[in-house]
């Protein structure tokens, strides 16, 4: 089985960390290609960057389909371009926010998200609503650590402190990590805080391999039918579907 994990930003270092987490989660018999777009923002922390990341994500889906990918993971907590990717890809596509929120509610009644910049909280709130987890989500707490600084030493300490607050003040049974670059912190935060911590890359790889093994893929009945052929112009001319 071949899984493609797309880091929607163009940071090669982050893609390689995401790939390591995805391979550990996938286990034997699952080949993981961890890729990132050839164009777009270095990290995604605003709606502007999210919009500009999507063409590069779709480009990686075209390449993944050509390789015979059996399942895709969009490894950014804003789930950028998830609907478009689902229409376009020949295999199921899961976002990491979507997968993490589902996983969290399978091991607890409630969860909190610990994330990067305060300005990304609105997007996470929208996704909580979209996926139907308003009752389960207790809080979304921002560390104000930028995505590309997640390797800093202070990160584990700050995210652990936020997670403790989520458990003791907000009543969260489970912590959801709100960025694709946080997988390496999962065990340490879970040990320190004493509740399950869910990383979205790990959750999404697990769910998408299960779907692919079961032979279950995106419904083409209506909304997620392949997009219609249409002329595309300018910089996007290459995205016209044949
Ligand atoms: C992210 C993420 O997962 N990747 C990225 O570039 N931005 N998420 C976030 N909350 O900032």
Would you write up a description of this structure?
The chain is α/β, with parallel strands linked by helices and 242 residues long. It has two domains: 2-95 and 202-239, Rossmann fold; 97-200, Rossmann fold. Helix content is 43%, strand content 14%. The protein is built from eight helices and eight strands. It has a four-stranded parallel sheet, with helices on both faces. A four-stranded parallel sheet has the order 6-5-7-8, sandwiched between helices. The chain is globular. The protein starts with a strand and ends in a 28-residue tail after the last helix.
Short characterization:
With 242 residues, this protein is an alpha/beta fold. The protein has 8 helices and 8 strands. The protein has a 4-stranded parallel β-sheet, with helices on both faces. A 4-stranded parallel β-sheet has the order 6-5-7-8, sandwiched between helices.
């Amino acid at each position: 089985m071949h899984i493609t994990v797309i880091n929607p930003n163009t940071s090669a270092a982050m893609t390689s960390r995401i790939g390591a987490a995805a391979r550990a989660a996938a286990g034997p018999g699952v080949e993981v290609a961890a890729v990132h777009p050839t164009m777009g923002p270095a990290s995604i922390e605003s709606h502007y960057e999210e919009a500009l990341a999507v063409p590069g994500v779709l480009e990686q889906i075209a390449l993944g389909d050509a390789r015979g990918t059996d399942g895709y993971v969009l490894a950014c907590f804003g789930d950028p371009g998830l609907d478009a990717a689902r229409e376009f890809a020949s295999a199921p596509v899961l976002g990491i926010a979507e997968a993490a929120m589902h996983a969290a509610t399978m091991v607890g009644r409630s969860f909190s998200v610990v994330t990067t910049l305060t300005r990304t909280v609105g997007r996470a709130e929208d996704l909580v609503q979209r996926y139907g987890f308003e009752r389960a989500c207790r809080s979304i707490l921002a560390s104000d650590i930028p995505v590309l600084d997640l390797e800093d030493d202070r990160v584990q300490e700050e995210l652990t402190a936020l997670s403790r607050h989520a458990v003791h003040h907000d009543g969260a049974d489970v912590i959801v990590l709100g960025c694709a670059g946080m997988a390496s912190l999962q065990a340490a935060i879970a040990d320190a805080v004493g509740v399950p911590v869910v990383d979205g890359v790990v959750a999404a790889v697990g769910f998408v391999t299960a779907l692919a093994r079961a032979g279950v893929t995106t419904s083409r009945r209506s909304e997620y039918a392949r997009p219609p052929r249409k002329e595309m112009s300018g910089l996007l001319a290459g995205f016209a579907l044949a």
